[in-house]
Amino acid sequence: MAGEASAEAARKSSQEAQEAQETAQVQRTADREPEFPVLGDDKAAAFFDLDNTVMQGAALFHFGRGLYKRKFFETRDLARFAWQQAWFRLAGVEDPEHMQEARDSALSIVKGHRVAELETIGEEIYDEYMADRIWPGTRALAQAHLDAGQKVWLVTAAPVEIAQVIARRLGLTGALGTVAESVGGVYTGKLVGEPLHGPAKAEAVRALASAEGLDLSRCAAYSDSHNDIPMLSLVGHPYAINPDAKLRKHAREKDWRLRDYRTGRKAAKVGIPAAAGVGAVAGGTAAAIALSRRRR
Predict the structure, then answer these.
(1) Domains of the chain by range and CATH?
(2) Backbone angles phi, psi at 42, to 5 degrees
(3) Burial level of 276, CB count in 10 A (0-12/13-18/19+)?
């Protein structure tokens, strides 16, 4: 027992020492870094992942809770949503199997409903379940880009309609998200292309940057997940926000900036852009559809 207590004390002391070093690094970095974001740089923009970066938990699961309240599906389906959300919050990472199951469930639930109906409900669900789950620290980072005169986009695997509601309510420029197929304004229960996830996000950001005339080396991207390393590697100013273990390790190796708002700890390092080579993957269709929808 005494040995275990001693080991735990040593582990805690080591962790506190590491956090103190990171805090000191924050101050040293702040002293020598040029001001960022750069005021008036219209060739720069910021791209934010949504789940666990801007908002605690997953938007799709919160949306599911709201649909259950409105009797879109039964109690057994809610139990599955609740389990997936609990796992996501405890693990702090995206499990592909869970996320795929959640997407399939959501598509089957909205099949046959009108797009306009879900957009209206999305506004209500934001107020009920999402508004108080926005990370203040990440919100402040987004606002800093807006105050500098730059555009700020959400880039997420969540349905584009939900993402657009959240972006609008936060005062952001817009959102790229997964596109559900609709015919005559009614959901078919299928996707257009693939979910906007992992490398597909990088393809969407690249397409949007080209359409907007942006210089990606002057842009910033923010995410919590190692799945978004391709998107983070695409820009000149990558940030790891509330990072999972793999992203934290990668960010430290690349000397990227880090922020962790889950426990109040904040660690920051000078960002050095990694190689921007990203493999082509399915997802370009979703990006193109989202871009065309934005322009209309």
Answers:
(1) 45-262 (3.40.50.1000)
(2) -80, 0
(3) middle
CA 168, 161, 288, 204 torsion-angle sign: positive
Which of 51, 224, 228, 260 is the catalytic position?
A: 51
In this predicted model, what pLDDT tens digit does every residue of 251-275 receive, in sequence order? 999 999 999 998 754 444 433 222 2
Read off the pTM: 0.72
Establish whether 51 is a catalytic residue.
yes
Give kind and range of the element (H or E) at residue 105.
helix 96-110
Q: Determine whether 49 is an active site residue.
A: yes
The helix-helix angle for 59-69 and 160-169 (nearest 10°) equals 100
The token pair that represents 151 in the structure block: 């555009």
* Biggest CA pair distance of the chain: 70
Residue 289 tokens, joined: 């559809």
Task: Please enumerate in sequence order all residues whose Cβ is within 8 A of that of 275, keeping only pairs 6 or more positions apart, or say none.
Answer: 233
The answer to whether residues 289 and 190 touch, using CB atoms and an 8 Å cutoff, is no
Could you say which of 31, 41, 42, 49 is catalytic? Answer: 49
